[in-house]
Specification:
Elements: H1 2-9, H2 21-30, E1 110-114, E2 120-122, E3 132-137, E4 145-150, E5 156-160, E6 170-173, E7 181-186, E8 192-200, H3 213-217, E9 228-232, E10 238-241, E11 249-254, E12 262-267, E13 273-277, E14 287-289, E15 298-303, E16 309-317, H4 330-334, E17 344-349, E18 355-358, E19 365-370, E20 378-383, E21 389-393, E22 403-405, E23 415-420, E24 426-434, H5 448-452, E25 463-467, E26 472-476, E27 484-489, E28 497-502, E29 508-512, E30 521-524, E31 532-537, E32 543-550
Antiparallel strand pairs: 1-8, 2-7, 3-6, 3-8, 4-5, 4-7, 9-16, 10-15, 11-14, 11-16, 12-13, 12-15, 17-24, 18-23, 19-22, 19-24, 20-21, 20-23, 25-32, 26-31, 27-30, 27-32, 28-29, 28-31
């Protein structure tokens, strides 16, 4: 009632003052826009008349955010110099900067992560001692490491690829090697991840073999079937005196340590090499017959490249072989009658032995091998009257067998030689048949002047060619303003083609030998006409093939 009376009399009712902060906030929100607590009620805006549109509610002004402070400037990250992998890198990226990084210490592996083209360089701590080994290990998948020992001038004096087992590497280093820096990289300059570890090594004992031919001559000769374990340091060579009885005797290496590639040689009293062998044994092992060098006095055992290596050396006597029933030299072959078509000869070749047979003049034959024993891999060759190789075939027959025809030779052949790949012993049959008459060689221009007077090749139409040794065929190309591709296919036996793009003066603009196997393929641009294509054969034999022009794929 009091409130109503006040309204009727027009008396102003004071707005009670807010007693709390919450009340103050609520009061402020309930006041019309623009009004304040001190404003009289009569000054408040009047409500709109009935039916008038309601004005939009005024929104309170958006709160002004506090002045944003710019973030403190972040100093740029210091980049490591290009010579060091990172500020705390344990290795350098250049040999001359290895002194700025921690040295390799015994039994403290270093993790290395390289990108393509990078290598890691290390110096060696003094506590490594005079003899130590550096090895890579824990290789990431596909990583194939390479280690090098560099001298003070940065020249490689030691190198190893797979001496650490698998794709890992290992260097055995002594004071005589004068190694100043170690380089660790990845084969082919690829990137990779691996560890490098240094281990101390005991000083190697003095070698138990002679290191000079003169010293070997003063020692007892090698005994047959006595296996000798040989461990060579870098640049070291072993020498052994030979027994007097060398009938059917061979020297061979076996049980090679990973990465070792041996070489054996027979020397005479003057130190001259009479015969030698690298990989005549299994894999990288060597095998050298002693019976065919009666003047040899010393056997030399070493590694390819003079690197460190370890292997077993042994002399073994092979079972005596029956005297051959075939000529084993050109001189002996000249005393024999020529091979005749339909002839089949069983051959049992000893180590490093060949069989020679004369050929009838003017008669074309096809010779091939069959009934190969075990892993025998035959090789046939046609020789001229002086013993020079005209044409040779390894696996032109079935499997490891050989096959060739005299008509494929570039010039008359006088002898046929039969042997086994790598000089290994083995048995097989040699068969001779009359060769079908060779088709006549293609009559085609051999220069651009003559080819310009003939019709050009037609797109998509194959041309059958048979060329003699040394013969070439030149054809004009169509001048249609569009690119072309010239290619050979359907090559005959022992045929290896070469295609050459010639300009109007006969100068070679492009060439290709082996685009697909022994076939050839040359891209011909649209411009640069007139132009010509020349087809020829690689080597000294005749051959047949197809030549065709096509459009390049879009």
């Amino acid at each position: 009632m009091a409130h109503r009376a006040a309204e009727r009399t027009g008396q102003r009712r004071p707005v009670p003052a807010p007693r709390t902060a919450l009340a103050l906030a609520l009061t402020t929100l309930l006041l019309p826009a623009g009004a304040t607590l001190a404003q009289p009620a009569g000054d408040l805006p009047k409500p709109p008349p009935l039916g008038a549109p309601t004005p939009p509610t005024a929104r309170p002004p958006a709160a002004v955010p506090p002045l944003a402070r710019p973030p403190a400037a972040t100093p740029p990250t210091a980049r490591p110099p290009a010579s060091v992998a990172s500020p705390a890198s344990p290795f350098a990226l250049r040999a001359e900067d290895a002194a700025r990084t921690p040295p390799l210490r015994p039994d403290q592996p270093v993790q290395v992560r390289l990108t393509r083209g990078q290598s890691a360089f290390f110096r060696v701590a003094p506590e490594a001692g005079p003899h130590y080994a550096v090895t890579t290990r824990r290789l990431a998948r596909g990583t194939d490491t390479v280690l090098e020992g560099l001298d003070a001038a940065g020249q490689a004096v030691l190198e190893d690829d797979d001496g650490g087992g698998g794709l890992a590497s290992q260097l055995e280093i002594g004071p005589e090697d004068n190694v100043a820096t170690i380089r660790a990289g990845v084969l082919g300059n690829e990137g990779g991840t691996f560890e490098v570890v240094l281990t101390r090594e005991a000083a190697p004992p003095p070698p138990d073999f002679a290191t000079t031919p003169a010293e070997a001559a003063s020692r007892p000769p090698l005994a047959v079937d006595q296996a000798v374990r040989v461990r060579l340091r870098r640049g070291q060579t072993a020498y052994f005196a030979l027994p007097s009885d060398r009938a059917d005797l061979v020297a061979l290496t076996r049980e090679l340590r990973q990465g070792t590639d041996t070489e054996l040689a027979l020397l005479d009293s003057q130190g001259e090499v009479l015969s030698e062998d690298d990989d005549g044994g299994e894999g990288l092992a060597s095998l050298l017959p002693l019976s065919d060098q009666p003047n040899a006095v010393v056997l030399r055992a070493s590694t390819i490249g003079g690197g460190a290596g370890e292997f077993t050396l042994v002399l073994q006597r092979e079972a005596p072989r029956a005297p051959p029933n075939f000529p084993t030299s050109l001189e002996a072959a000249r005393a024999r009658g020529p091979l005749a078509p339909g002839e089949s000869i069983s051959l049992d070749l000893g180590r490093r032995q060949f069989a020679y047979f004369p050929l009838a003049e003017g008669q074309d034959i096809t010779a091939y091998t069959r009934n190969l024993d075990g892993n025998t891999d035959t090789v046939l060759a046609l020789l001229d009257a002086d013993g020079e190789v005209i044409l040779e075939d390894d696996d032109g027959g079935e499997g490891l067998a050989s096959r060739l025809t005299t008509s494929d030779a570039g010039r008359p052949a006088a002898f046929l030689r039969a042997g086994i790949l790598g000089g290994q012993p083995g048995r097989f049959d040699l068969v001779v048949e009359a060769a079908a008459p060779a088709p006549a060689a293609t009559d085609a221009p051999d220069n651009v002047q003559a080819a310009a007077g003939q019709a050009p090749l037609v797109l998509g139409e194959s041309v059958s060619l048979r060329l003699r040794a040394g013969q070439s065929a030149v054809f004009a190309l169509p001048n249609d303003g569009r690119p072309l591709v010239a290619m050979t296919y359907a090559l005959g036996r022992n045929t290896d083609t070469v295609l050459e793009l010639l300009d109007g003066n006969g100068a070679v603009q492009a060439e290709n030998d082996d685009s697909d196997g022994l076939a050839s393929r040359v891209a011909i641009p649209a411009e640069g006409r007139p132009a010509f294509i020349r087809a020829r054969l690689l080597g000294n034999s005749a051959g047949s093939f197809q030549l065709v022009l096509v459009r390049p794929a879009p």
